[in-house]
Specification:
heterodimer, A: 116 residues, 7-stranded mixed sheet, 47% strand, globular, B: 110 residues, mainly beta, 3-stranded antiparallel sheet, 45% strand
Chain lengths: 116, 110
């Protein structure tokens, strides 16, 4: 099984430009998460989906960040416009509905964003 | 405030030596604690969770509610244990929203 798939793996853009990240979770996983990991830090939750519904987006900077999970499968995270401080690794994770409370999240390899 | 503290950024030990990665937490309710690991060029993955009370790859971790700690231990470190280790906390009912520490890089020297 391929696991959680993310693209692109790397992205370099200039500030004020838009950028989008895509995530394909493990088949059958209802819960999808987007985390951001700054250099030298642990991952921090941005948004959590249950199927197509965003059930926790309290940490998502809504002025420039947006996310969607159409049809409850793939998800896209967008930043527009990007700022220098957005440079980070953006991690997507998924978990099966029944495992939501066990803490086992399956992570993708991440998308490393560099904003110049 | 909910917080996970890993005081050591880097821990270096020799092969065969005991290793302990420290983790302290702050949480007002009854948390669930986890250790995640990221080996070089691999994705972040679950190592163990306190509710399972199991040993994975020789690692164990005991939740000490009095000291609000969840230290990860292994009696004899191996070179293949070299990795980034993250302690994480989930509040009961938070449905998987994990709060991670900053991580500790474990380096096991031959």
């Amino acid at each position: 099984e391929a696991g959680v798939v993310q693209s692109p793996r790397y992205k370099i853009i200039e500030k004020k430009q838009p950028v989008a990240f895509w995530c394909n979770p493990i088949s059958g996983h209802n819960t999808l998460y987007w985390y951001r990991q700054n250099l030298g830090q642990g991952p921090e939750l941005l948004i959590r989906y249950e199927n197509e519904e965003a059930v926790d987006d309290s940490q998502l900077p809504k002025d420039r960040f947006s996310a969607e999970r159409l049809k409850g499968v793939d998800s896209t995270l967008k930043i527009q416009p990007a700022e220098l401080g957005d440079s980070a690794v953006y991690l997507c994770a998924s978990s099966p509905w029944t495992d939501t409370n066990t803490g086992e999240l399956f992570f993708g390899e991440g998308s490393r964003l560099t904003v110049l | 405030a909910q917080r996970v503290t890993q005081p050591e950024k880097l821990l270096s030990v020799f092969k065969g030596a005991p290793v302990e990665l420290k983790c302290n937490y702050s949480y007002s309710g009854s948390p669930e604690l986890f250790w995640y690991v990221q080996y070089s060029r691999q994705r972040l993955q679950l190592l163990l969770r306190h509710i399972s009370r199991e040993s994975i790859k020789g690692f164990t971790a005991d939740l000490n509610k009095g000291e609000t700690s969840f230290h990860l231990k292994k009696p004899f470190a191996q070179e293949e244990d070299s990795a980034m280790y993250y302690c994480a906390l989930s509040g009961r009912g938070s449905q998987g929203n994990l709060i991670f520490g900053k991580g500790t890089k474990l380096s096991v020297k031959p």
